[in-house]
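Changelog-adjacent note: as of this version, every example in the card shows the full chain rather than a window. The one below runs 498 residues end to end.
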Amino acid sequence: MKYFDPVERMASAELVREQMWPYQNMGVWFIKYAKKVALWMDLGLGKSVTAGTAMTDLLAELKVNRVLIIAPLRVSKTTWPEQLSEWRHLAGFEYCVLSDDPEDRRETKTAAVLRRSRESRASIHIVNMEMTAALVDHWRRKWPYDMVIIDESSKFKDHASQRFKKLRLVSEYINYMVELTATPASEGYEGLFAQMALLDGGERLGTHITHYRDDYFKQNRWSKKWEIIEKLKPEIDKKISDITLVMSAKEYLPDQKGHHFVPHIIPMSSKFQRQYREMEETSVLELDDVEIVGDNAAAVWSKLLQMASGMVYETWKEPHPTRVGKMVNKRKAHHLHDEKLDELEELIDQLDGKPLLVGYYWEESLDRLTQRFPKAVVADKEGKFKAKWDAGKIQILLAHPMSAGHGLNLQKPTNHMCFFDLHPSLENFLQFIGRLDRQGQLHKVMVHLLLSKGTYDLRVWESLKEKREGEEKLLSRLRYIQRKVRQRFLDDMYGKAS
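Full-length structure tokens:
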């Protein structure tokens, strides 16, 4: 078991508490005041140091005995350890990264996490989200963590997920809980139910998702999706306003440069247009040696997005090689065009050596990118690439928004990024942009979008803009409601005006 020397870490820490922003101190106060809260802070506003400061204050005041920080894998292994070492007032407590790989190859990752959770004397344990259910099953009624910080609580928005269900079982043993995210409702109000239920046990939005839907939603008779009743949004906002604190970069960091979208509308050949219309209208694409079929609407939609990026997957099932009666999914990519690769190459030439962060979604897109740009570096899960990237030694960094969309600070060497593939998840979209558009960025971030003309790329882009507008309205209403919270903070900190 590896332990850290707090005295040595405090001596080497570069940042001190006095360097925190006033809005971060308000977040610390709110956590200590309300105990179970959601901090919805824009990307780059310093969610980690805000929650970390409240955590160490509570540990020092003996109001908390042990803290569990739950975060995406890369964030748990790199971002939080960095934060706990960079700030002097956070460095005084030992921490243990439960998510670290096992020292003994015979030990499974899950076994290593549970063993460290039992054996570590550290006051702060950091674990990846995927291990939440295993930790709860291991400890059950002996749950040792009286404070839990969930970094990127939007990952707990699925009320049917095991991580939500399991953590809810031990909520009675948790005295302080902090949910951190910049995108609480990126896919709509339905995702608020699980996040609020972890904090208040269902007091505000109900204990069952069915009741919540019946009260505030209507079901689309065609898509069967639940859609929020617009006039009831303010009612939900008011109900959750006392345990949520919203902070926007525009309000608290008016000098932050922000970002600007640069759509690259790429013309498509007449041959591709015929192929695209064929798949869109008939759900079948006839290539030279194969027939590619979209089995349902979702499959067709997915294949149309693949085609916009220059390829399409042929999919089929085969018997499992060893398990009788078990089928396995197989797929093969078929090349259609290189228009996006050509456009990206031109963009790279225009940047003239300036580093570029490139986001992709399809595995085949990654293969094609590495073939066209052999000097490009693929972001690894452990973050080993980061030192070279920060030093400006990587010209092209390839990263998947789902794995590199949280916690990484990549703004040092560049303000240019590009989406090679586009996907309709607003959360992943905004979080990925936030790797560059964050505090410390010296220039406006230029977000290049490679969009194939006449394809679903343009529909997805319009959908993302609509979702973003909806979430911004939610956060704006909550900021207005929370004026009293901010005044209470000022009164507590500086005394009431005479």
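Structural remarks: Residues 456-481 form the longest helix (26 residues).
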